[in-house]
């Protein structure tokens, strides 16, 4: 509609979160909300939205990013990682597929943020909403590249962990180092591979360092 009525006009999505009306108690401020939040960011970018605004940093309802004690909630860490790793350029995801063709695996592909990575690097955004691990195959563009893995999981296993207010990055609990300092959000470097394994109920990012994608140069 915007393209039709006002060609070239940017589209912003304001006051958005994992649920409307203040959020869902016990869900919007827990690990499980990250799946909808990350999917919204990936889908919004693919559809051409220029800006997505998160509602809210602190206070109002159950969808805040920081709790009353000023401790970050799971969606805060996810948002910081997205800003750090993901560039604005959206790439077509043609050759990457999960082995079971499961609708519970969702994938998006972007150029990596050039403030964090060298030109040509790409980032695969992933979500595995299944209770079982999933395997995805990689196209030649990235299968020969080393990668940084940023895998987010609940601190508790299984379905019960979906309602946890704590999250771990590559097996390490994310928490403030002191009142002003967040930890270093580093990826786990992996060798080139034709397939990647996604843990059950996980989401995150794989950055392919030597992809040398022309669109990202």
TrEMBL record:
InterPro entries: GH. This is Heparanase. Gene3D superfamilies: Glycosidases (3.20.20.80). It comes from the Eukaryota.
């Amino acid at each position: 509609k915007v393209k039709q009525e006002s060609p070239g006009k940017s589209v912003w999505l304001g006051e958005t979160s994992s649920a409307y009306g203040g959020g869902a108690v016990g869900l919007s401020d827990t690990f499980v909300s990250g799946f909808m939040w990350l999917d919204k960011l990936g889908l919004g970018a693919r559809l051409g939205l220029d800006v997505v605004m998160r509602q809210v940093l602190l206070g109002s309802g159950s969808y805040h990013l920081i709790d009353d004690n000023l401790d970050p909630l799971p969606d805060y860490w996810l948002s910081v990682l997205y800003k750090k790793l993901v560039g604005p350029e959206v790439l077509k995801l043609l050759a990457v597929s999960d082995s079971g063709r499961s609708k519970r695996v969702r994938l998006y592909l972007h150029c990596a943020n050039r403030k964090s990575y060298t030109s040509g690097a790409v980032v695969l955004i992933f979500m595995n909403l299944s209770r079982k691990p999933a395997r995805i195959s990689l196209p030649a563009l990235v299968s020969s590249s080393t990668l940084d893995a940023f895998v987010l999981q609940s601190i508790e296993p299984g379905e019960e962990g979906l309602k946890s207010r704590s999250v771990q990055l590559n097996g390490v609990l994310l928490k403030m180092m002191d009142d002003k300092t967040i930890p270093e959000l580093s990826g786990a470097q992996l060798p080139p591979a034709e397939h990647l394994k996604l843990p059950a109920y996980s989401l995150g990012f794989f950055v392919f360092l030597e992809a040398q994608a022309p669109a990202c140069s």
